[in-house]
Amino acid sequence: MNNTLTLRTAGFSRRIDLATLWRLLLAVLATALVMLGALSLGKLDLSPLTVLELLWQGGDPRLLFIVEQLRLPRLLLAALVGAALAVSGLILQSIIRNPLASPDLLGITSGASAAAVLYLSFFSLLGPQFLPLAAMLGAGLAALAIYLLAWKQGTSPLRLVLIGVGVSALLTAVTTFTLVFSPLTTTLSAYVWLTGSVYGASWPEPRALAGWLLAILPLLVWLARQVRVQQLDDALAQGIGVRVQWLRAGLLLVSVALAGAAVAWGGAIAFVGLIAPHIAKRLVAPGFAGQALMAALVGANLVMLADLIGRSLFLPLDLPAGIFVAVLGTPFFLYLLINQRH
User: Fold this and answer.
1) Rounded CA gap, 262 and 5, in Å?
2) Which of 222, 291, 209, 223 has the alpha carbon at shortest distance from 258?
3) Percentage of the chain exceeding pLDDT 70
4) How far apart are alpha carbons 190 and 120 in whole angstroms?
5) Out of 2.60.40.3080, 3.10.310.50, 3.30.559.30, 1.10.3470.10, which CATH number does the structure's domain 17-341 have?
6) Is the Cα torsion angle 124, 130, 132, 133 positive or negative in sign?
7) Once rounded to an integer, what is the mean pLDDT over residues 198-225?
8) How confident is the prediction for the chain on average, in pLDDT?
9) Which residue in 9, 85, 163, 187 could disulfide with 273, CB within 3.0 to 4.6 Å?
């Protein structure tokens, strides 16, 4: 029985695994249900049917405002942040060949966090609109430092991991040092941001993040077919004609751009880039395209569910989504560590 579907046109050929396709469709359906549930639940609970009617044809202006202006932008921002972090983590695990690799463990998130806290502490008078730019710049500089320090006639996955962990520890210390000398109001804002939260999101935030991700997408699609080559030994990859170092640098650039953008608008949400790729690899067959789509859906659901828990189960408090992702991520990380040891 043929379990694949082959698409061929002039200059293009793609084989699609039908089992992967069905699982992706189920994941899309699950994501739609999570989004409907998140739009329905909160301080004022609405029925799913009421939410659909409001989105389709309008209705009570008060209820429409709650759904369209308060819940929907926040939900979309959470989904985009989770998806970007998940795909970034999948790329890192592929090029570093280490199942423990993720943006927050390799220093990329720490770079964004350090830059954001410095901005909040000393440059906040410039306005909040430049905070995402500062975070993305910090992520890029951290990744550049890691890449240059790991360079020795090329970069190896092991050196990237070791240097990344060291740079992450240094940047975490810089962040803590900055918080000690910053005003109390800035410190409180920074701690919420460092935990990771989509609280108070309005339409400009998900639109800006979506625009950034769409700008990255062409480069990701162009490099996607080469990701699995990075899982080969460097000498073997070079032997079949692959420019390993250029490809690794390009994929690292895409990973940093995705993680930097996600952290810039959603804060330093940890473990999404670690958990989502592992779940995706268990759900779909090997192949970067299918695993990336599944990882994006899993990451989106993780952050959406974490934000739903934070704003609905502890009323009147509205807790950051990063707390609940960390609650799930810490035991998962320990499980991976124990598996690696054996």
Assistant:
1) 34
2) 209
3) 87
4) 7
5) 1.10.3470.10
6) negative
7) 88
8) 83
9) 85
* Reported confidence tier of residue 199, pLDDT bands at 50, 70, 90: confident
Q: How far apart are CA 267 and CA 84, in angstroms?
A: 13
Mean pLDDT lowest among 11-20, 62-71, 206-215, 301-310: 11-20
Total residue length of the chain: 342
pLDDT digits (tens, 9 = 90+) for 296-326: 999 999 999 999 999 988 888 888 888 888 8
Each residue of 152-165: b (16+ CB within 10 Å) or e? Answer: eeebbbebbbebbe
- Flag whether pLDDT at 1 surpasses 60: no
Please, are residues 121 and 109 in contact by the beta-carbon 8 Å criterion?
no
Using the predicted structure, report yes or no on whether residue 155 has a pLDDT greater than 70: no
Q: Which of 261, 258, 193, 253 is nearest to 223 (CA)?
A: 253
- The separation between the first and the last C-alpha atoms of the chain, rounded to the nearest angstrom, is 37
What's the CA gap between 71 and 30, in Å, rounded?
Answer: 19
User: Measuring CA to CA, which residue among 242, 257, 223, 18 is closest to residue 140?
Assistant: 257
Rounding to the nearest 10 degrees, give the CA dihedral for residues 123, 129, 131, 133. -110
| Cβ-based burial of 338 (10 A; exposed 0-12, middle 13-18, buried ≥19) | exposed
Instruction: For residue 68, give both structure tokens.
Output: 């369209």
pLDDT surpassing 80 at residue 36: yes
CA distance 271 to 298: 12
Burial level of 55, CB count in 10 A (0-12/13-18/19+)? middle
